[in-house]
From TrEMBL:
Keywords: Cell membrane, Membrane, Transmembrane, Transmembrane helix. This is DUF421 domain-containing protein. Belongs to the UPF0702 family. The chain crosses the membrane at residues 6-29, 41-60. One of its GO terms (cellular component) is plasma membrane. It holds the Pfam family DUF421. The lineage of its organism: Bacteria, Pseudomonadati, Pseudomonadota, Alphaproteobacteria, Hyphomicrobiales. Residues 90-158 form the YetF C-terminal domain.
Length: 223
C-alpha cells in the first residue's frame, strides 16, 4: 500500500517522470498562450493540472502506492515554488514563463503581430472589443491583452472614423452596411480597420494586413 513492490530506485524514476511531465505540460500550455489561460499564470495552471492528476491517481487506483503519489506531489510543488522564485529574481526567465502584455489595437487598427502572438484572428479581436462596448475601431486608441488574459482598452476622447464592428460582420451582408468606396474616397480595410485617407490608384491591398476588401470609414454612432 505504502511502498508497493518496486525497488527504492523507482523513486528516482518517479522524480524524473514528474519533471518530464511538468515540462511537457508547460510547453503545451505555453503554445496555447492566453487563449487557454486567463485569470492565472501558466505556472498556476500547470500546477492545478499536475496536482489534479497526481491526487486523482492515488484516490481512485488501489494499485498506486501512496508514497509514490506523495513524492510526485512534492516534486510538482517544489518545482513550482523554485520556478516562481527564480522568475521574480531573473528577468530572462520571466519572459519565458510569464506572458507579457500584448498590443491588439493601436490607433483604431488591429495589430497584426500582437493578434498573431495571441493566436487571434481579426474576428476574435472584434468580438473581445464588443464585449467591452466598442462599436467602432475608431473609438480605440490602445487595446492590450494583459498577462492574465484580460483585455484593457483605452478610448479616444473624440472617436475618429474607423471600421464599424457592430453588428458583427458575419451576421450582415456587406452592402449597404459596408459600401465600397469610390477611387477618390477614403478606404477602410474590412479586415484590420486601417484607414487610407488619400488612396492612390495602386491601392489594392491593405499595407497592414494585406487584405483586399475595402469600405468607407464611419464615425461611431453612440445610439
Amino acid at each position: 500500500m505504502w511502498m508497493g513492490e518496486e525497488p527504492l530506485l523507482f523513486f528516482v524514476e518517479i522524480i524524473f517522470r514528474s519533471v518530464l511531465s511538468y515540462i511537457y505540460c508547460f510547453a503545451l500550455l505555453r503554445v496555447l498562450s492566453g487563449r487557454a489561460v486567463a485569470q492565472m499564470s501558466l505556472l498556476d495552471f500547470v500546477l492545478i493540472i499536475a496536482l489534479g492528476s497526481a491526487v486523482g491517481d492515488v484516490a481512485f487506483y488501489a494499485d498506486v502506492p501512496i508514497l509514490h503519489a506523495l513524492l510526485v506531489i512534492t516534486v510538482i510543488i517544489t518545482i513550482t515554488k523554485l520556478l516562481d522564485r527564480w522568475i521574480h529574481n531573473w528577468a530572462p526567465l520571466k519572459s519565458v514563463f510569464d506572458n507579457s502584455p500584448t498590443t491588439l489595437v493601436h490607433e483604431g487598427i488591429i495589430d497584426q503581430p500582437g493578434s498573431s502572438r495571441r493566436d487571434m484572428n481579426e474576428m476574435e479581436v472584434m468580438e473581445r472589443l464588443r464585449l467591452h462596448g466598442i462599436r467602432n475601431l475608431g473609438e480605440v486608441e490602445w487595446a492590450f491583452i494583459e498577462a492574465n488574459g484580460n483585455l484593457s482598452i483605452f478610448r479616444y476622447r473624440s472617436p475618429k472614423p474607423g471600421l464599424t464592428i457592430v453588428p458583427p460582420h458575419d451576421l450582415v451582408p456587406r452592402a449597404p452596411l459596408f459600401p465600397s468606396p469610390a477611387d477618390d474616397e477614403p478606404h477602410c480595410c474590412l479586415c484590420c480597420g486601417m484607414v487610407i485617407a488619400c488612396p492612390s490608384p495602386e491601392t489594392e491591398r491593405c499595407p497592414n494586413c494585406n487584405g483586399a476588401k475595402w469600405t468607407l470609414p464611419t464615425l461611431s454612432d453612440p445610439s
